[in-house]
Structure formats: structure tokens, C-alpha cells
Amino acid sequence: MTTKENILKVLKSNKIKLSKFGIRNVGLFGSYIRNEQSKESDIDLLIDFEPEKENFDNYMAVYDLFEKIFKNEKIEVVTKNGLSPYIGPKILNEVQYV
């Protein structure tokens, strides 16, 4: 099982690749950021696009890249603009950007 530190390191090392799809920020939230993960946990990632680059194709390209990077892990990718008004504030309070 991976660790918060490893995930953050991998995200940081892939920032240039992500920026090609218009990602201006990427962060980790959820059980890994709180050190509460289990073997069933997924990696929760929050991405923030440049406004003119936020579209389905770029989202899917970024999702595919994350699947390749985190081969054997389950991932969940959420956009900052797609956050629910109910849980969004909690996510924004705990997210750690790289």
C-alpha cells in the first residue's frame, strides 16, 4: 500500500505533464491526507483546470494519466469546479496541493 508522502512526490514529479492538459493545481485529499487509509481506500485527487482548458477530453486524458501513474491503486479524480456545495468546503479545507 502506498503512502501520502509517495503520492505527493509522484504528483509533484508529474506537474509538467499535467500542465499540458491545462491543470494549474493538483492536490490530495481524503483518507490518505488524514493518514486513515486502508487497503480498500482510493486515492482522492482534486484538480483545477485553466478555464479555457476545462473540458471532457482533457479530464479523461488526465484521468488516464493518473491510472497509469497509480497502476495498482483505485483513484477518484474531482475537479474544483465540480465540487458539491455540501462536501466541497470540507475537501478544500483538507486538500494538500503540490
CATH architecture name: 2-Layer Sandwich
Helix vs. strand class: alpha+beta
Count of distinct structural domains? 1
Q: What's the shape? A: globular
Total DSSP helices? 4
H/E series: HHEEHEHE
Computed CA radius of gyration, to the nearest angstrom: 13 Å
CATH superfamily: Beta Polymerase, domain 2
Report on the structure:
The protein has 98 residues and is α+β, with helices and mostly antiparallel strands. The protein has one domain (4-97): Beta Polymerase, domain 2 (2-Layer Sandwich), CATH 3.30.460. It has four helices and four strands; from the N terminus they run H-H-E-E-H-E-H-E. A four-stranded mixed β-sheet has the order 3-2-1-4, sandwiched between helices. The longest helix has 14 residues, at 56-69. The two termini are 21 Å apart.
Describe this structure in a few short sentences:
The model has no long low-confidence stretch (mean pLDDT about 95). A four-stranded mixed beta sheet has the order 3-2-1-4, sandwiched between helices.
Q: Top keywords for this entry?
A:
21% strand, alpha+beta, 4 helices, 98 residues
Give the helix/strand layout:
Blueprint: H1 4-13, H2 15-19, E1 23-29, E2 43-49, H3 56-69, E3 75-79, H4 88-94, E4 96-97
Parallel strand pairs: 2-3
Antiparallel strand pairs: 1-2, 1-4
